[in-house]
Amino acid sequence: MKNIISKVILGSFVVGAVGMTSAQKIDAKAKKILDDITANYKSKKNSYFKFSFGSGLNGQVNKTEPGIYYTAGEKYKLKIMDTEQIFDGNKIYNINADDMEVTIAKPNGSATMFSPINYLSTYRNEYNVTYNGKKTVNGVNADFIKLTPVKANGIQYVYIFVDSAKKQMVKLEQHGSNKDVAVIAIKEYKENQDLDPNMFVFDKNKFKNYVITEL
Question: Per residue in 111-125, pLDDT tens?
Answer without folding.
Answer: 444 456 777 777 777
